[in-house]
Amino acid sequence: MRELGSSQPTAVELEILRILWDLEPCPVRDIHARLAEAKGTNYSTTVKMLSVMMQKGLVTRNEKVTPHLYKAVLSRQKAAKKFLSELIEKIYDGSAMSLVLQALASGKASQSEINEARKLLDEMEDKP
Amino acid sequence: MRELGSSQPTAVELEILRILWDLEPCPVRDIHARLAEAKGTNYSTTVKMLSVMMQKGLVTRNEKVTPHLYKAVLSRQKAAKKFLSELIEKIYDGSAMSLVLQALASGKASQSEINEARKLLDEMEDKP
DNA sequence: TTGTGTTAGCGAAAGGTTTCGCTACACTGT
DNA sequence: ACAGTGTAGCGAAACCTTTCGCTAACACAA
Question: Given this model, what pLDDT does residue A79 score?
């Protein structure tokens, strides 16, 4: 068994998480609708995936109602933060800033976003 | 077959890429030394992994010399950029800046890095 | 009750990744 | 030439992920 919590979600798992972040709490059918649209997979597949993800601790569900309602355990924010620090660790060897610089350089940012980033930089200078 | 170029490298593949980014161009033995240290795997495994990665176009090698010398096809920079945009696409729904802000907020940056980020922001304003 | 549809679950097939044993080949020193 | 050593490759085992067929349980209308 893979070590719990230390593993990125697989491709399909991530796809399901993304759907949940949009719709949760929601029943299998809704998740399936989106998944089938994108990949044409069977309803059983979605159910199974969710049960696997439950076992891995990626999702929970409310069993008091039918149909059961699923939720992602990690919020989009928290998951993003986790992936990000993994990315930083694995690719950038722990330097968060080099990632930031690259993201800034490659991305197109609006004026308000640029201002927001400046404000953040100022704050960082104030309390190091 | 998986669609070429559209897939993240798997766990071991990434581990090998990281080693290559440090040592390339280098022979199997060197890669294996590091891999074995971390995971205790067999020499054959390393060779096989490299051959799989060749087939996927993740690495190349110079066959004119023995032992063959391996190199990653994508530089660390380019790979990082690719992963990053995948991350942005998949988790942040395409907003690079929200990732940047999060990375800034959670990471500790040195003064020189902060300055560098400011400079970059200025440049972005100049040519939007 | 009987039939119809929706929900949940199991087990196994299909497909991908990771591991290694065994084989072969090239080169070096004797 | 021959043993010994380092290098490369193949095919299959072991393992994980993804898919689905089949079955059961349940609710509700005819």
Answer: 85
